């Protein structure tokens, strides 16, 4: 079996992922995607999502007409706007990340190429929201053989978290080891750009990285663009080792899904919106085509004689406010203009309402203002789904950070908390004062009160308790100005 063999579930979902990603990319990607070549019109740009009105006509005239048909169509990116709105709800507040000193470099460089951990979390949340799948591999570069300890330390080797979109995870398998289900195979596609001999041109080559458990031990293999094993000094097999020198008994690869963080492919959350988005685009094409064909006024004449036509229409007719047309006796003229077909427009309006209901963004469609509480209740289900995705992202990255410490030798448990408060909460002043009194009486801690104040945005989310305590201790004490004493007021000390 060749290394580029794909899992059966992978092929089933690939077209769905492509649809969502094209919609997210916008009109350019949608109008550029070509379909099959099974029709007479051939595989033209745009046919993947906008079928030709007359696919059986392979003439150049019909192909040019179809190109104009695509160009006039209006694709409104509801899918991309919905995704951006959801991510904006999540990342409107900074994530809280606490790492062991052994891996704190990941805050600014998590993948070895300068991608910060916070940005990687955003990318993972974006892909999990769009296609419901993302992958993370914790890797550690091996030092060349024969180097001294000093030379190895000079290489500055460290663990990294490598991201893989759903399309790059082409095959996988699980097996039972002592009654425990573990990943036993993961095949990853890695597109690589190879420069030409002159260094100015590039050729895209597809490498494949194979992660497997062989006799219960984690081993890596790399295959080049020809499907041949890449050979290293010690052979084709790479056996990663932990900081204590021991081999791995598991593959440090984590799936992130929209439902569960396991190997099964979850439903793409934005697929339903993308499907309606394409249908809305097709309605727009029909409406714009109809408006173009019948929207131009056409002059009509009646009662004309052949001699008049020969005399006055040999060079065409000019009409408008500054033109005059002399008609023969009994002749008449009028402008014929039909109304555009309104059915596609009605279909567009209906699909827009459907996308609003599916999505989480609050879009005012006229009809008065909506209370904040009503909005919260209306979108509680979607927010719950979004919150589940964010919890999966947190869990996946936390596991990868733990694996990273097994490479680097850290000890303290990593902490990641991504915002799951998607709207501003309001706090009752009486409730706040009651909590302050409970703190002063020793029932609850100061941190509990501050947590409540952060949720209501009375304290900035990124300010830790340590920051607040430091600032409070550094500020000058508040001095209450004494009320001046009236000279005529009786003073018991003076009599």
Could you characterize the architecture of this molecule?
This protein has 495 residues and is an alpha+beta fold. The strands form 4 sheets. The chain has a 4-stranded antiparallel beta sheet, with no helix packed on it. It has a 3-stranded antiparallel beta sheet with strand order 3-2-8. Helix 1 packs across helix 7, helix 5 crosses helix 11 and helix 7 runs antiparallel to helix 9. It is extended. The N and C termini lie far apart (108 Å).
Fraction of helical residues: 25-40%
| Secondary-structure element string | HHHHEHEHEEEEEEHEHEHHHEHHH
Number of DSSP helical runs = 14
Give the low-confidence spans.
360-371, 377-382
Strand content: 15-25%
Q: What is the radius of gyration?
A: 34 Å
Q: What's the end-to-end separation, in Å?
A: 108 Å
Short précis:
β6 (202-214) and β7 (217-223) form a beta hairpin.
List keywords for this structure.
16% strand, 3-stranded antiparallel beta sheet, alpha+beta, extended, 495 residues
Secondary structure elements and pairings:
Layout: H1 8-25, H2 27-32, H3 60-72, H4 78-90, E1 96-98, H5 117-130, E2 133-139, H6 149-154, E3 160-165, E4 169-177, E5 180-195, E6 202-214, E7 217-223, E8 253-257, H7 271-294, E9 298-302, H8 306-312, E10 332-336, H9 343-358, H10 372-378, H11 380-408, E11 415-417, H12 429-440, H13 446-455, H14 465-474
Antiparallel strand pairs: 1-11, 2-3, 2-8, 4-5, 5-6, 6-7, 9-10
Helix pairs in contact: 1-4, 1-7, 5-11, 7-9, 12-13
């Amino acid at each position: 079996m060749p290394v580029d063999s794909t899992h059966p579930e992978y092929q089933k979902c690939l077209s769905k992922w492509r649809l969502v990603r094209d919609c997210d990319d916008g009109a350019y990607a949608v109008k550029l995607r070509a379909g099959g070549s099974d029709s007479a019109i051939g595989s033209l740009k745009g046919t993947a999502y906008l079928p030709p009105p007359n696919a059986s006509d392979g003439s150049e005239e019909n192909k040019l007409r179809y190109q104009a048909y695509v160009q006039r169509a209006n694709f409104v990116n509801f899918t991309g706007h919905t995704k951006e709105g959801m991510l904006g709800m999540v990342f409107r507040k900074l994530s809280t990340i606490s790492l062991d000193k052994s891996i704190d470099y990941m805050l600014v460089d998590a993948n070895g190429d300068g991608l910060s951990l916070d940005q990687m979390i955003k990318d993972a949340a974006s892909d999990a929201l769009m296609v419901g799948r993302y992958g993370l591999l914790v890797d550690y570069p091996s030092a060349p053989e024969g180097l001294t300890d000093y030379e190895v330390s000079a290489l500055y080797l460290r663990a990294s978290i490598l991201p893989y979109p759903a399309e790059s995870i082409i095959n996988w398998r699980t097996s039972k080891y002592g009654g425990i289900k573990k990943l036993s195979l993961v095949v990853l596609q890695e597109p690589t750009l190879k420069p030409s001999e002159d260094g100015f041109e590039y050729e895209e080559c597809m490498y494949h990285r194979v992660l497997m458990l062989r006799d219960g031990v984690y081993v890596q293999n790399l295959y080049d663009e020809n499907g041949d094993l890449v050979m290293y000094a010690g052979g084709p097999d790479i056996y990663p080792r932990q900081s204590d020198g021991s081999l791995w008994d598991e593959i440090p690869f984590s799936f992130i899904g929209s439902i569960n963080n396991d190997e099964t492919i979850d439903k793409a959350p934005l697929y339903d919106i993308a499907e309606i988005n394409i249908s809305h685009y097709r309605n727009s094409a029909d409406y714009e085509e109809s408006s173009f064909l019948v929207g131009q006024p056409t002059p009509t004449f009646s009662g004309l004689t052949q001699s008049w036509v020969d005399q006055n229409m040999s060079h065409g007719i000019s009409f408008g406010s500054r033109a005059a047309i002399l008609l023969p006796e009994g002749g008449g003229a009028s402008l014929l203009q039909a109304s555009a077909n309104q059915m596609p427009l009605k279909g567009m309006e209906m699909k827009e309402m459907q996308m609003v209901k599916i999505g989480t963004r609050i879009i005012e469609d006229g009809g008065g203002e909506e209370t904040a509480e009503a909005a919260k209740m209306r979108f509680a289900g979607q927010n719950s789904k979004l919150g589940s995705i964010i919890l999966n992202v947190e869990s996946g990255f936390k596991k990868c950070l733990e694996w990273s410490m097994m490479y680097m030798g850290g000890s303290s448990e990593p902490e990641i908390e991504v915002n799951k408060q998607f709207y501003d909460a309001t706090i009752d002043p009486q409730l706040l004062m009651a909590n302050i009194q409970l703190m002063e009486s020793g029932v609850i801690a100061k941190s509990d009160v501050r947590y409540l104040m952060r949720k209501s945005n009375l304290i900035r989310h990124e300010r830790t308790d340590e920051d607040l305590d430091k600032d409070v201790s550094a500020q000058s004490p508040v001095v209450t100005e004494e009320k001046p004493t009236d000279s005529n007021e009786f003073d018991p000390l003076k009599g």
